[in-house]
Amino acid sequence: MKLARSALLLAGLAGALLLAPPARAQAQALDRAGLVQELCGDAGAMGRAGATLAATAAAGSDEDRAWAAPLARAAIDRKLGCDETGAVLEEGGLDAVTRTPRAATGTPRAPLLSLRNRPVFELGDAAFALRGAPDPARRAAALKTLERRPALIPERLLDRAAEAETDAGLKEQIDTLAQTAALNAADPAARIRAIGRVAENPSRRALTRISALARDPAYEANPEFRAAVDAATARIERGIAIGDALATLYNGLSFASILFMAAIGLAIIFGLMGVINLAQGELIMIGAYVTWLVQQGLRAVAPGLLDWYLILAIPVAFLVTAAIGIALEASLLRHLYKRPLMSLLATWAVSLFLMNLVRVVFGTQNLQFETPFYVTGGVPVIGDFIFTWNRMFAIAFAALTLALTWALVRRTPFGLNIRAVTQNRDMAACIGIPTRRVDMMAFGLGSGLAGLAGLALSPIYSVNPQMGQNFIIDAFMVVVLGGVGTIAGTVVAALGIGQINVLIEPLWGAVAAKVIVLLMIIAFLQWRPEGLFAVKGRRK
Amino acid sequence: MSRIGPTSPIVLLIGLIILVAMAMAGLAGTEFALSRYLANAIGQLAAFAVLAISLDLIWGYLGILSLGHGLFFALGGYLMAMYLLKHSFEITATVPDFLQFMGWKDFPFYWAGFEFFPYALAVAVVVTLLVSGIFGYVSFRSRVGGVYFAIITQALVYVAMLLMFRNDTGFGGNNGMTGFTVLFGWPMGTSGMITALAVASLLVLAWVLLGCRWLVGSRFGALMLATRDDETRLRTMGYETLRLKLIVWCLSALIAMLAGMLYVPQVGIINPRVLSPELSLEIAVWVAIGGRGHLVGAVIGALLVNAVKFWLSSAAPEIWPFILSGLIVLVVLVFPNGLMDIAKFKFVRPMGAKRLAADLGESRP
């Protein structure tokens, strides 16, 4: 409502302002002296001067634009000194008309912009900057200013700015703004064309823009216009619905890949040894901290490679956490295999220790990560769905981890040993598999996978000593649901829990999603106590 | 089961507890009375000891580790807090903070009747029995046990914590409930009230100890140990272990709820942090340090760990986690039966010590 009202108000304003300028813009040569005189005049004259400036920015010759550009800025900053002979630009001490150096005569008066004129001048200044400023950031800022008042933008300004624009992102933004301006144009045919163009890229913003037109006077008066608006609204709504569905799927997939990364190490360890590693969350956290350390190291040693720290940290994160896992297994868990509940407490002690150690060494604040170009931004697909690269990174990373883990477990002698020990420890020992060594290596593998999960998380989540706690219970649920020690079960359970979470969240909130998922898991275990994919073997 | 002699540790412990309670009651008001801080600390420790017994009953004697006992503790605590707030409101017309935060004019409908303690107690018992009964039934029926059960109980308490952190549930949200002024018509916060609460907690502890000792010494207790040591064999012999496990589980939950009801008036606040998985894990640590499968051990473990925690959390809070994790590793690796391993050579010969000295029949899941 508010938006529509202000749009109408602006449209009215635009009518008042734009009706005068075209006549002036047609005048090929700019009356420079007259313009300066108006700038020094009363509020009405200054308003006309402002409109002339805006029109010059849109349609004036290059020389005229270069000449007029400083005037708008000077008027806004009150750096224009009016005296008897005309005006002086205080910056540089130049005559406003001839641009030759001269001092002001008498006491120059700096005209004050009225509240009504100020936006007109700011618009003019932004219009000059958009077409003339060499710095893209300045042009982007100017565009922001113009976006606030699309109805006041002079005709052809945006088309010309877009033609000259070299920055692709900025050019696109200018085009979008041009459409908005066209939606508010005076000619109904141009408006209908603009509506069609806006509907080609459905998004919530487009919908707001189009639905605001339903309150436009033309909507009642002009049936063609009404039909165009209605068709565009329907088309955009369909696009948004598709986009939202895709976005939910995508978010669910990225959440699932995080869950999978956190759970796969747990699943391997649990399947093999019946040990739930409560320190897995802390190993994830350490993986993220190692990634950060690699980033800091690169910053100090090889700043040129800084962007690649996420890739370079992969082996480091894996090896460090795997080493911690192996040390943990050899010193502590080795003695507790017959007592899984005690190993639960022992790993909790380790988790407590690691978390507090990191807290003491690094502090409790969130770590700052660079955002490399390959996880920045995204591709808008349809509606409000943006295919963001940081989530894609997590998904691709999880897929790669899945492939490698699968290959390791299914295609290598080490994997064969893991599977043999998982299925029947005693029999595997009988045929000469060194079960203790397999345990140790597998524990290292599971821990290393947790480290990789920490790495994959670091571009998306906040990294602090407590971060492991947020994932560990979800990861357990994945293991319990998926069944012990199966990769396929972990994948399916992670996908399922991830999607259900994302589906429920918008309806009832994140807490309800967790509650419902837990209740569903408990109910599911009634049906299949061994999880989705139970390993064939003796029930231990 | 072995007979209880006059010098057996449990008799000594119960005697000591009653002695302390009587001394505190007798000395109240005189110059020899304990400081308010100390009396309050003793009362809280007694509540924690009751909580530890509840877990020992199910873990030490039945081999089922629950990492979610904080849920029942919090249930008792929250319902007690509801009684206290409603009761204080009836007498002094103080509006609880959380109602003001939420901008609510009146208590939500489910607070009706909580000004009557018997009603609050009845609700606490019924809700605890319902939650523990349903959860226990579905878990034990599908023979979820061992590590699986531990993990699912942990998830349960975690989810409950998330739920209670919400502000719109009518249970105080993340600030919890505090500002209790009146208990059974008496003003709270006086030294008399603090001593009375501590004495009451000690007496409840003595009763719970006595009751549990009777239970584990009975024929039912023998069945519990048999279930712990070899459930399959017991089932093969025709015993229904589902009902047995369910009864002990619900009883354990009730005792934990009782501990929560004792705890809340003494600390004067309840918030969702009692539902954090860490607290529930810590209960298991008290029991493990004291010695699983010994009621005396659970009490001593809870008292010892919490006394050190009370002392350290004011003296050096940052080293407490390191000490705790060190203690756990020590207990797990060197003294599998906790302090009982150290103590039994000197004066303790707890029942079933020979069997317990070996591993506590924990089977793989």
TrEMBL record, chain A:
It is found in: Cell membrane. GO terms for molecular function: transmembrane transporter activity. GO terms for biological process: amino acid transport. The keyword Transmembrane helix applies. It comes from Ancylobacter dichloromethanicus. Keywords: Amino-acid transport, Cell membrane, Membrane, Signal, Transmembrane, Transmembrane helix, Transport. It is a multi-pass membrane protein. It holds the Pfam family BPD_transp_2. The keyword Kinase does not apply. The chain crosses the membrane at residues 255-276, 283-302, 308-328, 340-362, 392-409, 442-463, 475-495, 507-527. GO terms for cellular component: plasma membrane. Its main location: membrane. Residues 1-25 form the signal peptide. Belongs to the binding-protein-dependent transport system permease family. LivHM subfamily. This is ABC transporter permease.
TrEMBL record, chain B:
It comes from the Bacteria. Keywords: Cell membrane, Membrane, Transmembrane, Transmembrane helix. One of its GO terms (molecular function) is branched-chain amino acid transmembrane transporter activity. The keyword Transmembrane applies. CDD domains: TM_PBP1_LivM_like. The chain crosses the membrane at residues 71-89, 109-135, 147-165, 185-210, 242-263, 283-307, 319-339. GO terms for cellular component: plasma membrane. It is a multi-pass membrane protein. It is found in: Cell membrane. PANTHER family: HIGH-AFFINITY BRANCHED-CHAIN AMINO ACID TRANSPORT SYSTEM PERMEASE, SLR1201 PROTEIN. NCBIfam families: urea_trans_UrtC. This is Urea ABC transporter permease subunit UrtC. It comes from Ancylobacter dichloromethanicus.
